[in-house]
Structure prediction request, 554 residues.
Amino acid sequence: MANGTMIEGKSGAEGEVIREMVFDTYNNGNGAAATSKEYPINEKELPIVNNNNVINSAKFLITAERLANIILALGGVVCLLALIYFVYYYAWTRQRQFTSWAGVLLYYVTPALMTIVFFASLRLRASPKINLALLACSAGIGFYAVEVQLTLWFSLPSVRDNLASRERKQIAKTLGLEFDGRTKHQLVEDLLSRGVDAVPSIFPRGLLQKRSDGTLKSAIHLNSTEILPLGAPANKLIVVCNEGGRFLTYRSDEHGFNNPQTLWNHRSIDIVALGDSFAQGWCVAPDKSFVGLIRERYPATVNLGEQGNGPLIELASMREYGQILKPKTVLWFYFENDLQDLNRERHSPLLSSYLRKGFSQDLFSRQQEIDRVLIEYIKTSRDKNAVLMKLEEISALVRDPSQLSTGIDNIVRLGHLRQTLGLVQGQDRTPFSDAQPSSADNELTRSMAPLIELFNEILFEAKTSVERWGGRLYFVYLPGWHRYAAGQLGSPDRDAVMHVVAKLALPIIDVHQVFRAQKDPVSFFPLRVNGHYTEEGHRLVAQYVLQHIPSSSK
Prediction:
């Protein structure tokens, strides 16, 4: 015979009790006989039980049951709120729609059943109730641990680039198109092995590193002094990007930009173009980009666009190069994510110095020094193995969480985990361009007020500088893929940005107007996915800009 003791906590109208179950197990296989005694939990009665462990176990069990009740009730409330959310957006307001029948099962049936299970489990006995609560907590912690890891992984620049390339390659294969599946690094290595003096594209934003005090500092130094080059090494074959099947490569000019050789030797410059990767010409041949097409009419057109440039870097480019060239026309190409770029750039003391009248790094006359340190930087980066590069990217994300691919709200919704498991079965019904701004959009605009104010200061300084040498500054608004793709949202700060430009009395060239007038604006993006413009898109931009530039620009 073997003896054992099991303690259960019990709650009810008679108060909390301790039940000691004494099991006598017999070897004859007839099962167990049990007797039970109940002890009220109060100071007078506790001494009746001689075993202190029994008392402590009972107290622990009762506390555990209370916590289990709280956890299960919270679980039920969360599932109920999720069900209400889905019903509100998919059935009541119909702002979102299911992409397949599985959405009904996933968004309606599943949270409804989970709500019933959680609330019904509150009537279970203590032991199974506690086990269920532990299971729910373990599952929740596990899900969010995986979500955080996925968010971190998918935020790494190298991972994002590889995933985007893989997606485009698959789409191209489906459409029967050829697609160069090599990475930028692989192409550079192939070119170098053939004796071609090639380097991967390098850009100002990529050189800025976040420090422990929250500021951004350039990774490049000359004579122990911080310096931020605004272009790539001069006279090199620059390997840039591949969105439509073929890589964009070009021979950089004498200052590291995407321009024909010797263009800087012109006696006078017609146009200077400022902007990010769109202005740089991603991802079409240089003569097919909108700046290249503008150059057909105005041959002395200098392109200072670089990947990732925001308003502060563009102001810096104008100060370092535009002010020397003094063109009649400056085209400020603004893309829809530029305020996000500005939100990062404003943490660089060096870039913020360009708001001071007369500040300059004297980059124009220091090109040889800049080339030397940039080539050293690129060589050091090439020598790093894949693991070390991943660790450096993770370290950069930890120092600067703003670079995560998604926000906290997406982590709460387990966005990456659901996407990975194929559990995203809904999309927005109406594109942003035809929708009224939501309260969330208005709140976002209000929270960006400091950025809008800084943007106003930057444009005012740019306008004043251009007018000082007798030129004119044009503001060109470039729309993104999200503004036209079904179920996607355009930038909510468009109205605020346009208000700033109008208040400064800058001439506005709104490319969104010409894109939205087309039958299928999504076709202006390679393979119809998020990215830069196709050759046709670049052609439309160039035509629209040229319509608004007076012939006196020559």
